[in-house]
Known about the structure:
Dihydroorotate_DH_cat; Dihydroorotate dehydrogenase; FMN; cytoplasm; Dihydroorotate_DH_I
Amino acid sequence: MSAASTDMTVRIGSLELPNPVLTAAGCGGSGRELAPFFDLTRIGAFTTASVTTQPRAGRPTPRAAETPAGLLTAVGLPGPGVEPFLERDLPWLVDRDVRTIVSVAGNSVEEFAEVARRLRGVPNIAAIEVNVACPNVADRGRMFGWHPSAAAAVVGAVRLHSRPGTPVLAKLAPDVTDIARIALACVDAGADGLTLVNTMEGMAIDPVTLRPALTGVSGGLSGPAIRPVAVRCVYQVHAALPDTPIIGVGGVDSGLAALEFILAGASAVALGTTLFHEPGAPLRVLRELEDALASRRIAHLADAVGLAHKPAGYVPPRVLPLPPGDTEAAADPGEAPVVAAEAPNGASGPRRRPASPAAADAAFGAQSDGSGGADARPEAREGSARSWEARIPAPAGPRRPDAPAPEPAAADTKERLP
């Protein structure tokens, strides 16, 4: 790993954060629950549970169920309401200098606007996240995040009634037909950034009770199970809105998972489900992400954002110097930065400069037939193809009328279903 470190600062609208690792809404309680496990000021920002105008008890239990590689929840947005939040929860965070993103929710445009009005006079809010995507409210059939016009109406109302200069983020659902279209509508309505994504609608049935595992029948799926979907959403939206900051959410449980979101186009990431079984995970993920960027000699986090969209061979404008004593020659201008080959289990292989096309051809030839030369590659490939073709039976010619019928193949003697 390089002795130099990567600049991890990130900007989301007017908000500058020291690093890109956040917590996701609803997964860290009021902040007090996580405080025993790590210093909340060391992460980019803490995101509150969604705040509504009135207190909510949430759904009756059971409202959470584990699934393979994920968690299914239908909690119903429980919370004390905006007034107790302002009197008790937010002051606790402000007194400890925790950068705080306040998530807001509601059943109507008017409720979203009212929460924003109540927050307007508070100067210590880093950003407001508009939860237009939560599928766990009573009337899920009218989820704002499913329709561009509805999502835009909510975002516009929050933007209008929020404190001037406070960044507004729109949190969108992944299970829509065209998430880029909805994202564009939110940005046009005044969103300074986007949080992608919320949970996906899912369901589990208990084989013991023979009934749905959740009292709400269906719920929101989160965790590593949805990460490929979340990464796809980030990639698509970044392609459509390359200048709009994105916070990637959905199965971030390691530095490499965070890096995947950043390469897709996210400027920051938020941990959610991971916090339930590893409350101190944000600092670990931050260390792993910084190591992953430094080992790839990426000097600034911003240079990695959306790197997967760049053409092959693209070189970031700023790279870290090689560590002192590194025997590898410094990369020539125009060459790609050194990349650490990382195995799936996290082990790192030798750090090598990307090979030229000719060298790659030579290596392919050596691996194909063991001769070690590029000239052997075509023959090796042809020989391999011929040996593969030799295993295919030649087509039988026409059978004479008096010739005995061929024995049926073993597979043909088995009874077949109609």
